[in-house]
Amino acid sequence: MSRLIQVVTTYAFTTGVNSFHILSTIPTVPRSFIASNSITSMQMSATASEVTVPSWADLTSHSSGQTVGSVLNNEVESRQNGHGSAHVQSKLRLFSSSNENPQITLFRDHAAWCPYCQKTMLLIEEKEIPIKIEVVPMRSYGDKPADFLRMVPSGLLPALALEGSDGRKQVITESQVIMELLDRWHPTSEGYKKMLPDENDKEGRAKYDKLARLERELFSCWCSLIFRPEGPTLANVGAGFMGMFGKKDDKNEISGAMSGFLDCLSTVDGELTATPGPWFFSEEHPTMIDFVFVSHVERMLASCAYWKGLNLRSEEMKQKYPGLNAWLDAFEKKEYYLAFKSDYYTHIKDIPPQYGPSYDGGFEEQRKVYSKMIGGQDASWSLPLPHDDPIQPLYRGKSYRTTVRYKDNCSHILMFFL
Ligand SMILES: N[C@@H](CCC(=O)N[C@@H](CS)C(=O)NCC(=O)O)C(=O)O
Predict the structure, then answer these.
(1) CATH code for residues 81-190
(2) Mean pLDDT (whole number) for 143-149
(3) Fewer CB near the last or first residue (10 Å), C or N of the chain?
Protein backbone atom coordinates (compact mmCIF):
# COMPACT_ATOMS: atom_id res chain seq x y z
CA MET A 1 0.00 0.00 0.00
CA SER A 2 1.24 3.46 -0.77
CA ARG A 3 2.68 5.37 2.16
CA LEU A 4 0.86 8.41 0.82
CA ILE A 5 -2.54 6.77 1.14
CA GLN A 6 -1.62 5.54 4.58
CA VAL A 7 -0.44 8.89 5.88
CA VAL A 8 -3.40 10.72 4.42
CA THR A 9 -5.66 8.27 6.19
CA THR A 10 -3.74 8.86 9.41
CA TYR A 11 -4.26 12.60 8.98
CA ALA A 12 -7.94 11.85 8.82
CA PHE A 13 -7.78 9.92 12.08
CA THR A 14 -5.86 12.72 13.75
CA THR A 15 -8.23 15.44 12.72
CA GLY A 16 -11.43 13.46 13.01
CA VAL A 17 -12.23 13.84 9.31
CA ASN A 18 -13.63 10.79 7.54
CA SER A 19 -10.76 9.03 5.84
CA PHE A 20 -12.79 7.98 2.85
CA HIS A 21 -13.65 11.57 2.05
CA ILE A 22 -10.01 12.61 2.40
CA LEU A 23 -8.92 9.93 -0.03
CA SER A 24 -11.56 11.06 -2.45
CA THR A 25 -10.18 14.56 -2.52
CA ILE A 26 -6.83 13.57 -3.96
CA PRO A 27 -7.56 14.90 -7.40
CA THR A 28 -5.34 12.81 -9.65
CA VAL A 29 -5.55 9.35 -8.03
CA PRO A 30 -7.26 7.00 -10.48
CA ARG A 31 -10.11 5.16 -8.79
CA SER A 32 -8.57 1.86 -9.86
CA PHE A 33 -5.42 2.85 -7.93
CA ILE A 34 -7.40 3.56 -4.77
CA ALA A 35 -9.40 0.35 -5.14
CA SER A 36 -6.34 -1.80 -5.58
CA ASN A 37 -4.13 -0.12 -3.02
CA SER A 38 -6.22 1.02 -0.10
CA ILE A 39 -7.35 -1.45 2.46
CA THR A 40 -10.39 -0.45 4.46
CA SER A 41 -13.55 -2.37 3.68
CA MET A 42 -15.43 0.93 3.43
CA GLN A 43 -13.15 2.03 0.63
CA MET A 44 -13.25 -1.30 -1.13
CA SER A 45 -17.02 -1.51 -1.19
CA ALA A 46 -17.80 2.07 -2.22
CA THR A 47 -18.79 2.94 -5.76
CA ALA A 48 -17.99 6.18 -7.56
CA SER A 49 -21.54 7.50 -7.12
CA GLU A 50 -21.27 7.29 -3.31
CA VAL A 51 -18.18 9.48 -3.12
CA THR A 52 -18.64 12.98 -1.75
CA VAL A 53 -15.78 15.31 -2.39
CA PRO A 54 -15.29 18.09 0.16
CA SER A 55 -12.89 20.85 -0.80
CA TRP A 56 -9.68 21.54 1.11
CA ALA A 57 -11.44 24.69 2.38
CA ASP A 58 -14.21 22.51 3.85
CA LEU A 59 -11.63 20.25 5.43
CA THR A 60 -9.69 23.20 6.85
CA SER A 61 -12.85 24.61 8.34
CA HIS A 62 -13.77 21.21 9.78
CA SER A 63 -10.28 20.70 11.20
CA SER A 64 -10.30 24.11 12.93
CA GLY A 65 -13.02 22.70 15.21
CA GLN A 66 -10.65 19.94 16.34
CA THR A 67 -7.82 20.40 18.84
CA VAL A 68 -5.00 19.31 16.55
CA GLY A 69 -6.54 21.11 13.59
CA SER A 70 -6.79 24.44 15.40
CA VAL A 71 -3.20 24.16 16.65
CA LEU A 72 -2.05 23.51 13.08
CA ASN A 73 -4.12 26.40 11.70
CA ASN A 74 -2.58 28.75 14.30
CA GLU A 75 0.86 27.49 13.34
CA VAL A 76 0.13 28.36 9.69
CA GLU A 77 -0.85 31.91 10.65
CA SER A 78 2.22 32.39 12.81
CA ARG A 79 4.41 30.99 10.05
CA GLN A 80 3.00 33.45 7.52
CA ASN A 81 4.13 36.27 9.82
CA GLY A 82 7.67 34.90 10.00
CA HIS A 83 7.32 33.34 13.44
CA GLY A 84 6.67 29.97 15.03
CA SER A 85 8.70 26.83 14.82
CA ALA A 86 10.75 25.79 11.81
CA HIS A 87 8.77 24.45 8.89
CA VAL A 88 9.60 23.44 5.33
CA GLN A 89 6.93 25.78 4.03
CA SER A 90 8.13 28.93 5.79
CA LYS A 91 8.67 31.81 3.39
CA LEU A 92 9.87 34.21 6.05
CA ARG A 93 11.94 33.66 9.18
CA LEU A 94 12.22 36.66 11.48
CA PHE A 95 13.16 35.08 14.83
CA SER A 96 13.66 38.02 17.20
CA SER A 97 14.29 40.61 14.47
CA SER A 98 11.97 43.59 14.21
CA ASN A 99 12.89 44.13 10.53
CA GLU A 100 10.03 42.52 8.67
CA ASN A 101 11.78 42.74 5.32
CA PRO A 102 15.18 41.00 5.51
CA GLN A 103 17.44 41.81 2.56
CA ILE A 104 18.55 38.27 1.96
CA THR A 105 16.54 35.56 0.25
CA LEU A 106 17.38 31.88 0.12
CA PHE A 107 16.12 29.95 -2.90
CA ARG A 108 15.70 26.32 -1.95
CA ASP A 109 13.94 23.31 -3.44
CA HIS A 110 10.20 23.08 -3.17
CA ALA A 111 10.05 19.45 -2.05
CA ALA A 112 12.73 19.69 0.67
CA TRP A 113 14.60 16.88 -1.06
CA CYS A 114 17.86 18.70 -1.75
CA PRO A 115 20.52 17.88 0.87
CA TYR A 116 22.46 21.08 0.07
CA CYS A 117 19.39 23.25 0.72
CA GLN A 118 18.70 21.27 3.87
CA LYS A 119 22.15 21.90 5.39
CA THR A 120 21.86 25.60 4.58
CA MET A 121 18.43 25.85 6.21
CA LEU A 122 19.72 24.05 9.33
CA LEU A 123 22.48 26.63 9.73
CA ILE A 124 19.96 29.45 9.31
CA GLU A 125 17.71 27.94 11.97
CA GLU A 126 20.49 27.29 14.48
CA LYS A 127 21.86 30.82 14.04
CA GLU A 128 18.36 32.31 13.86
CA ILE A 129 19.16 34.43 10.82
CA PRO A 130 16.26 36.61 9.62
CA ILE A 131 15.69 35.68 5.98
CA LYS A 132 13.15 35.40 3.18
CA ILE A 133 12.75 32.01 1.51
CA GLU A 134 11.62 31.22 -2.03
CA VAL A 135 10.97 27.68 -3.18
CA VAL A 136 11.88 26.43 -6.66
CA PRO A 137 11.16 22.97 -8.10
CA MET A 138 14.02 20.60 -8.75
CA ARG A 139 14.25 19.03 -12.23
CA SER A 140 12.54 15.87 -11.01
CA TYR A 141 9.53 17.96 -9.93
CA GLY A 142 9.10 20.17 -12.99
CA ASP A 143 10.57 23.14 -14.82
CA LYS A 144 12.25 25.98 -13.02
CA PRO A 145 10.71 29.44 -13.45
CA ALA A 146 12.42 31.60 -16.11
CA ASP A 147 13.11 34.31 -13.50
CA PHE A 148 15.14 31.87 -11.45
CA LEU A 149 17.07 30.60 -14.48
CA ARG A 150 17.92 34.17 -15.48
CA MET A 151 19.36 34.66 -12.01
CA VAL A 152 21.02 31.20 -11.74
CA PRO A 153 21.63 29.86 -15.29
CA SER A 154 22.91 26.50 -13.96
CA GLY A 155 19.55 26.02 -12.18
CA LEU A 156 21.38 24.64 -9.14
CA LEU A 157 19.94 25.04 -5.68
CA PRO A 158 20.45 26.49 -3.15
CA ALA A 159 21.07 30.11 -4.19
CA LEU A 160 21.21 33.21 -2.06
CA ALA A 161 20.14 36.64 -3.31
CA LEU A 162 21.38 39.70 -1.50
CA GLU A 163 19.44 42.87 -2.17
CA GLY A 164 21.47 46.08 -2.16
CA SER A 165 20.10 49.50 -1.12
CA ASP A 166 19.79 50.35 -4.85
CA GLY A 167 17.50 47.33 -5.30
CA ARG A 168 20.14 45.35 -7.23
CA LYS A 169 20.58 41.69 -6.41
CA GLN A 170 23.84 39.86 -5.92
CA VAL A 171 23.44 36.10 -6.32
CA ILE A 172 25.58 33.51 -4.58
CA THR A 173 25.55 29.76 -5.21
CA GLU A 174 27.28 26.73 -3.61
CA SER A 175 25.94 25.74 -0.22
CA GLN A 176 29.29 25.91 1.58
CA VAL A 177 29.96 29.43 0.27
CA ILE A 178 26.45 30.52 1.22
CA MET A 179 26.77 29.07 4.71
CA GLU A 180 30.17 30.64 5.26
CA LEU A 181 28.94 34.07 4.14
CA LEU A 182 25.80 33.83 6.26
CA ASP A 183 28.02 33.08 9.23
CA ARG A 184 30.35 36.01 8.47
CA TRP A 185 27.46 38.47 7.99
CA HIS A 186 25.93 37.44 11.33
CA PRO A 187 28.83 37.58 13.80
CA THR A 188 28.98 36.69 17.49
CA SER A 189 29.45 40.43 18.25
CA GLU A 190 25.81 40.86 17.18
CA GLY A 191 24.65 37.95 19.35
CA TYR A 192 24.71 35.20 16.70
CA LYS A 193 26.21 31.77 17.32
CA LYS A 194 29.55 30.97 15.74
CA MET A 195 29.51 28.36 12.99
CA LEU A 196 33.19 28.23 11.99
CA PRO A 197 36.48 28.58 13.86
CA ASP A 198 37.85 32.15 13.76
CA GLU A 199 40.08 32.95 10.79
CA ASN A 200 43.15 33.29 13.05
CA ASP A 201 42.43 29.95 14.75
CA LYS A 202 44.77 27.95 12.51
CA GLU A 203 44.22 24.68 14.34
CA GLY A 204 40.43 25.06 14.26
CA ARG A 205 40.47 25.93 10.55
CA ALA A 206 42.72 22.96 9.78
CA LYS A 207 40.33 20.70 11.68
CA TYR A 208 37.37 22.13 9.72
CA ASP A 209 39.16 21.51 6.40
CA LYS A 210 40.05 17.96 7.42
CA LEU A 211 36.44 17.24 8.39
CA ALA A 212 35.11 18.80 5.18
CA ARG A 213 37.37 16.44 3.20
CA LEU A 214 36.21 13.52 5.34
CA GLU A 215 32.60 14.39 4.52
CA ARG A 216 33.36 14.20 0.77
CA GLU A 217 35.17 10.89 1.31
CA LEU A 218 32.18 9.46 3.18
CA PHE A 219 29.88 10.70 0.41
CA SER A 220 32.04 9.04 -2.20
CA CYS A 221 32.15 5.73 -0.25
CA TRP A 222 28.36 5.87 0.08
CA CYS A 223 27.97 6.47 -3.69
CA SER A 224 30.22 3.47 -4.44
CA LEU A 225 28.19 1.30 -2.07
CA ILE A 226 24.69 2.30 -3.15
CA PHE A 227 24.88 3.39 -6.77
CA ARG A 228 27.20 0.75 -8.23
CA PRO A 229 26.66 -2.99 -8.31
CA GLU A 230 28.42 -4.33 -5.24
CA GLY A 231 31.60 -6.24 -6.11
CA PRO A 232 32.58 -9.68 -4.83
CA THR A 233 32.76 -10.23 -1.10
CA LEU A 234 36.19 -10.37 0.50
CA ALA A 235 36.81 -13.00 3.14
CA ASN A 236 37.69 -11.90 6.68
CA VAL A 237 37.09 -8.18 6.32
CA GLY A 238 33.69 -8.39 8.00
CA ALA A 239 34.97 -9.37 11.44
CA GLY A 240 33.13 -7.35 14.04
CA PHE A 241 29.89 -7.47 12.05
CA MET A 242 29.14 -11.10 12.85
CA GLY A 243 25.64 -10.44 14.13
CA MET A 244 24.74 -8.90 10.78
CA PHE A 245 25.03 -12.14 8.84
CA GLY A 246 22.32 -14.67 8.38
CA LYS A 247 24.50 -17.67 7.59
CA LYS A 248 27.27 -18.95 9.79
CA ASP A 249 29.78 -19.77 7.05
CA ASP A 250 29.75 -16.34 5.39
CA LYS A 251 29.98 -14.32 8.58
CA ASN A 252 33.33 -12.79 7.69
CA GLU A 253 32.48 -11.90 4.10
CA ILE A 254 31.74 -8.38 3.06
CA SER A 255 32.26 -6.46 -0.19
CA GLY A 256 35.07 -3.99 -0.74
CA ALA A 257 32.53 -1.17 -1.13
CA MET A 258 30.83 -2.09 2.15
CA SER A 259 34.16 -2.38 3.91
CA GLY A 260 35.29 1.03 2.58
CA PHE A 261 32.07 2.67 3.69
CA LEU A 262 32.18 1.13 7.18
CA ASP A 263 35.85 2.06 7.63
CA CYS A 264 35.15 5.65 6.67
CA LEU A 265 32.21 5.73 9.11
CA SER A 266 34.62 4.56 11.84
CA THR A 267 36.84 7.56 11.10
CA VAL A 268 33.81 9.86 11.32
CA ASP A 269 32.78 8.19 14.56
CA GLY A 270 36.30 8.69 15.95
CA GLU A 271 36.06 12.43 15.25
CA LEU A 272 32.71 12.62 17.03
CA THR A 273 33.81 10.68 20.09
CA ALA A 274 36.93 12.86 20.42
CA THR A 275 34.91 15.91 21.56
CA PRO A 276 33.25 16.22 24.98
CA GLY A 277 29.77 16.86 23.53
CA PRO A 278 27.88 15.24 20.66
CA TRP A 279 29.15 17.62 17.91
CA PHE A 280 32.30 17.69 15.73
CA PHE A 281 33.63 20.74 17.57
CA SER A 282 33.53 21.34 21.31
CA GLU A 283 30.80 24.00 21.08
CA GLU A 284 27.56 23.42 22.93
CA HIS A 285 25.62 23.71 19.70
CA PRO A 286 26.07 22.16 16.24
CA THR A 287 28.26 24.17 13.88
CA MET A 288 28.57 24.33 10.10
CA ILE A 289 30.43 21.03 9.72
CA ASP A 290 27.66 19.18 11.59
CA PHE A 291 25.15 20.50 9.05
CA VAL A 292 27.47 19.71 6.15
CA PHE A 293 27.53 16.07 7.27
CA VAL A 294 24.03 15.48 8.54
CA SER A 295 21.91 15.92 5.42
CA HIS A 296 23.79 13.18 3.58
CA VAL A 297 24.17 10.95 6.64
CA GLU A 298 20.37 11.09 6.90
CA ARG A 299 20.13 9.72 3.36
CA MET A 300 22.75 7.09 4.20
CA LEU A 301 20.66 5.79 7.11
CA ALA A 302 17.61 5.18 4.94
CA SER A 303 19.44 3.88 1.86
CA CYS A 304 21.81 1.55 3.76
CA ALA A 305 18.90 -0.07 5.59
CA TYR A 306 16.73 -0.37 2.48
CA TRP A 307 19.24 -1.45 -0.17
CA LYS A 308 21.97 -3.05 1.98
CA GLY A 309 20.29 -4.32 5.16
CA LEU A 310 22.59 -2.14 7.25
CA ASN A 311 20.71 -0.34 10.03
CA LEU A 312 23.17 2.16 11.46
CA ARG A 313 20.81 2.96 14.37
CA SER A 314 20.48 -0.67 15.56
CA GLU A 315 21.69 -1.65 19.04
CA GLU A 316 24.65 -3.42 17.47
CA MET A 317 25.62 -0.35 15.43
CA LYS A 318 25.21 1.88 18.51
CA GLN A 319 28.03 -0.11 20.08
CA LYS A 320 30.12 0.06 16.92
CA TYR A 321 29.45 3.76 16.19
CA PRO A 322 28.62 5.40 19.54
CA GLY A 323 29.71 8.89 18.45
CA LEU A 324 27.62 8.80 15.29
CA ASN A 325 24.54 7.59 17.17
CA ALA A 326 24.90 10.16 19.98
CA TRP A 327 25.27 12.88 17.32
CA LEU A 328 22.09 11.74 15.55
CA ASP A 329 20.24 11.55 18.88
CA ALA A 330 21.35 15.12 19.67
CA PHE A 331 20.13 16.33 16.26
CA GLU A 332 16.78 14.64 16.78
CA LYS A 333 16.24 16.68 19.93
CA LYS A 334 16.29 19.81 17.79
CA GLU A 335 12.88 20.74 16.49
CA TYR A 336 14.25 22.54 13.44
CA TYR A 337 16.18 19.41 12.44
CA LEU A 338 13.02 17.31 12.66
CA ALA A 339 11.20 19.91 10.56
CA PHE A 340 13.63 19.38 7.67
CA LYS A 341 14.35 15.69 8.18
CA SER A 342 12.62 13.24 5.85
CA ASP A 343 11.33 9.78 6.68
CA TYR A 344 13.04 6.70 5.25
CA TYR A 345 10.26 5.99 2.76
CA THR A 346 10.58 9.46 1.27
CA HIS A 347 14.34 9.05 0.96
CA ILE A 348 14.22 5.70 -0.79
CA LYS A 349 11.84 7.32 -3.28
CA ASP A 350 13.68 10.64 -3.63
CA ILE A 351 17.21 9.24 -3.91
CA PRO A 352 16.94 7.46 -7.32
CA PRO A 353 15.53 10.50 -9.23
CA GLN A 354 18.43 12.58 -7.92
CA TYR A 355 21.34 10.12 -7.83
CA GLY A 356 20.37 7.35 -10.26
CA PRO A 357 19.48 3.70 -9.70
CA SER A 358 20.47 1.98 -6.47
CA TYR A 359 21.60 -1.65 -6.13
CA ASP A 360 20.54 -4.32 -3.63
CA GLY A 361 23.35 -6.03 -1.77
CA GLY A 362 25.06 -6.09 1.60
CA PHE A 363 23.44 -8.10 4.38
CA GLU A 364 20.79 -10.01 2.48
CA GLU A 365 18.64 -11.37 5.32
CA GLN A 366 18.38 -7.97 6.99
CA ARG A 367 17.91 -6.27 3.64
CA LYS A 368 14.75 -8.27 3.01
CA VAL A 369 13.39 -7.35 6.45
CA TYR A 370 14.23 -3.62 6.28
CA SER A 371 13.14 -3.17 2.70
CA LYS A 372 9.71 -4.53 3.64
CA MET A 373 9.52 -2.38 6.75
CA ILE A 374 10.50 0.77 4.87
CA GLY A 375 8.79 0.08 1.56
CA GLY A 376 5.59 -1.37 3.03
CA GLN A 377 5.64 -4.53 0.89
CA ASP A 378 3.53 -7.57 1.75
CA ALA A 379 1.21 -5.68 4.12
CA SER A 380 4.13 -4.90 6.43
CA TRP A 381 2.46 -1.63 7.41
CA SER A 382 -0.73 -1.50 9.45
CA LEU A 383 -3.01 1.32 10.46
CA PRO A 384 -2.75 3.49 12.40
CA LEU A 385 0.90 4.34 11.70
CA PRO A 386 3.02 3.79 14.81
CA HIS A 387 4.32 6.80 16.71
CA ASP A 388 7.35 4.71 17.63
CA ASP A 389 8.76 3.38 14.42
CA PRO A 390 11.31 0.67 15.23
CA ILE A 391 13.88 1.79 12.66
CA GLN A 392 13.35 5.51 12.16
CA PRO A 393 13.31 7.83 15.13
CA LEU A 394 11.58 10.54 13.08
CA TYR A 395 8.23 9.07 13.90
CA ARG A 396 8.60 9.32 17.67
CA GLY A 397 5.69 11.59 18.44
CA LYS A 398 6.13 13.41 15.17
CA SER A 399 4.05 11.49 12.71
CA TYR A 400 1.27 14.02 12.49
CA ARG A 401 3.71 16.70 11.30
CA THR A 402 5.00 14.42 8.59
CA THR A 403 1.45 13.56 7.66
CA VAL A 404 0.62 17.19 7.20
CA ARG A 405 3.72 17.63 5.04
CA TYR A 406 2.48 14.86 2.75
CA LYS A 407 -1.01 16.28 2.75
CA ASP A 408 0.19 19.74 1.79
CA ASN A 409 2.34 18.34 -0.99
CA CYS A 410 0.08 15.57 -2.24
CA SER A 411 -0.47 16.78 -5.79
CA HIS A 412 3.30 16.98 -6.36
CA ILE A 413 4.30 13.69 -4.81
CA LEU A 414 1.67 11.54 -6.50
CA MET A 415 3.76 11.13 -9.64
CA PHE A 416 6.37 9.27 -7.61
CA PHE A 417 3.82 6.78 -6.28
CA LEU A 418 1.82 5.93 -9.39
N1 LIG B 1 27.78 21.89 -4.94
C2 LIG B 1 26.45 22.39 -4.92
C3 LIG B 1 25.52 21.24 -5.27
C4 LIG B 1 24.09 21.70 -5.42
C5 LIG B 1 23.24 20.67 -6.11
O6 LIG B 1 23.72 19.65 -6.64
N7 LIG B 1 21.95 20.92 -6.13
C8 LIG B 1 21.02 20.03 -6.81
C9 LIG B 1 19.93 19.55 -5.86
S10 LIG B 1 20.52 18.45 -4.64
C11 LIG B 1 20.28 20.79 -7.88
O12 LIG B 1 19.94 21.94 -7.73
N13 LIG B 1 20.03 20.13 -9.01
C14 LIG B 1 19.23 20.70 -10.06
C15 LIG B 1 17.85 20.14 -10.06
O16 LIG B 1 17.64 18.99 -9.64
O17 LIG B 1 16.95 20.86 -10.47
C18 LIG B 1 26.14 22.98 -3.55
O19 LIG B 1 26.80 22.59 -2.57
O20 LIG B 1 25.30 23.88 -3.45
Answers:
(1) 3.40.30.10
(2) 95
(3) C
